Amino acid sequence: MSEYKTVLAAVDLSEESAQVIARAKAAGAEDAAVHLVHVQEPMDSVYLGVVPFGPVFPGMDEAEEKLREELQKRLDDWAKRFGLSDGNTHFRYGSPAHEIRTVAEELGADLIVIGTHGQKGVQLLLGSTANSVLHGVGRDVLAVRIHGESDD
Ligand code: AMP
């Protein structure tokens, strides 16, 4: 029987989130609290190295704010879909791996569940986010192999 009492599932809000949340629920004890975290990445981080500083395009801040509202709504929708309470969703802004680790620490989570794709090369087994979360984390991490339509 599982002893995980507080489980944190990291979701990117794509359809693969269903697989991650389902595994998080299955991995926890019967009375476990399952939490969801989504991290909004700053738009300018995508362009680092291309644009040295400041907004990448006019109106970026407003666009980011709109996106934040939409992502927060989607996170709540995922929680509802899996019967999780409102207080169990955590929306953050910044670097996904760093924020996932921070939320896990704040909650005292004993298990982090994260999706992983079949990458090649150095990321052969672990996706980049899963790989980064693992670095320096002092708790168990379950990397869920995401199955797509193209899988055998
Ligand atoms: P990746 O291989 O980097 O695309 O990451 C795959 C997994 O990392 C997803 O299935 C999620 O579990 C997690 N993940 C990726 N991005 C985020 C994000 N912005 N917020 C929370 N979790 C994320």
Question: How would you sum up this structure, described in words?
Answer:
This protein starts with 5 loop residues before the first strand and ends in a 7-residue tail after the last strand. The chain contains five helices and five strands; from the N terminus they run E-H-E-H-H-E-H-E-H-E. The mean pLDDT is 87. The protein is of the alpha/beta class and 152 residues long. It has helices spanning 17-27, 43-46, 60-81, 96-107, 128-134; strands spanning 6-10, 33-40, 89-93, 111-116, 140-145. The chain is 37% helix and 20% strand. The chain is globular and about 55 Å long. Residues 10-12, 16, 20, 37-39, 41, 96, 114-115, 117, 127-130 line the site of adenosine monophosphate.
| Ligand types | adenosine monophosphate
Give the helix proportion (percent range). Answer: 25-40%
Radius of gyration: 16 Å
Count of alpha and pi helical runs: 5
β-sheet strand percentage = 15-25%
What integer is the average pLDDT? 87
For the sheet with most strands, the description reads: 5 strands, parallel
Summing up helix and strand content along with how strands pair, one would put the structural category as alpha/beta
Shape: globular
CATH classification, class level:
Alpha Beta
- The CATH superfamily title: HUPs
SSE succession: EHEHHEHEHE
Distance between the termini: 31 Å
